[in-house]
Write a structure and sequence with these properties.
The structure is a single chain. The chain is α+β, with helices and mostly antiparallel strands. It has two domains: 163 residues, Ribosomal Protein S5, domain 2 (2-Layer Sandwich), CATH 3.30.230; 125 residues, GHMP kinase, C-terminal domain (Alpha-Beta Plaits). Helices cover 36% and strands 25% of the residues. It has ten helices and eleven strands. Strands 1, 2, 3, 4, 5, 6 and 11 form a seven-stranded mixed β-sheet that branches. Helix 2 crosses helix 4. The longest helix is centred in the middle third of the chain and has 20 residues. The chain starts with 5 loop residues before the first strand and ends with a strand. Its main location: cytoplasm. Keywords: Amino-acid biosynthesis, ATP-binding, Cytoplasm, Kinase, Nucleotide-binding, Threonine biosynthesis, Transferase. It comes from Planococcus koreensis.
Amino acid sequence: MMWTDFTVIVPASTANLGPGFDSIGLALDLQLTIHVSRAEQWHIEYKDDSYSHLAGAAQNLIVEAAMHTASKLGRTLPPAKLVVETDIPLGRGLGSSASAIAGGIEICVRLLGIDMPMKEKVAIGTEMEGHPDNISASLMGGLTISYAEGEDLEVVHIPDAAIGVVLMVPPTEFLTSESRGLLPESLAYGAAISSSAAGNVLAAALVRGDWRIAGRMMEKDAFHEPFRQSRFPDFAEIRQACRAAGAYGSAISGAGPSLFIVAPEGREQEICNSLSEQFPHYDCSFTKPSPSGIKSFETVV
């Protein structure tokens, strides 16, 4: 099977945006870059030391996703060498696993020399992730609002999000499995109605590009944040400080432990500086949404 060396670039993502639980995702301008070249057997090399423990092919999510995709197609992949660079922090609720899965799917497609519809890529990624929010955003870019139940999948894609983004990352990892373990098995009927209404208005505001309303609705979640916020030092104080600094709203990023803050476009650095001074135990940074999803191209040496 003939193929040339190539590179895959995948954006990070944040998910939920409050009551858009397991449904809404936003691609962020942080990247996972995978350089793929020929090899006699699978070999993975990470440039970031925090990822080095994932270098074994047997437990590597990129390779697992590539192999899983090939198996669904009834195909066998040739081995490859993967050199991985990333500025997506591991285990911080910024879609590191979804970006790896998306990268693996794209690697499979390139190695086999086939075309695959975007919806099929999202479906495979959703099957592996268990929910479509992060994976759809990393594959498609921009904002995604998704429904997934078994094989029934629908994604509404909003390419542009005219906002600034502030991220507050605590010093410790918080595993998704641990975070999901905090959630109740059932929710009170009234809380479900209220949070569902907030999610509906959030989605409508996102489609309209009204981040002032979207930011307010982000903070009205009852599906997951009330059960997780105790794990975040100064959660209530940070939310109040975000509003005082002029942010539209804040939410737990995915399962945490990062906090996602929506800033008016152009004010993200100012708001980040203000929050960093008040909460120095968090690593505060600013970025922007990524309108582009996953992309791959022949590597030019």
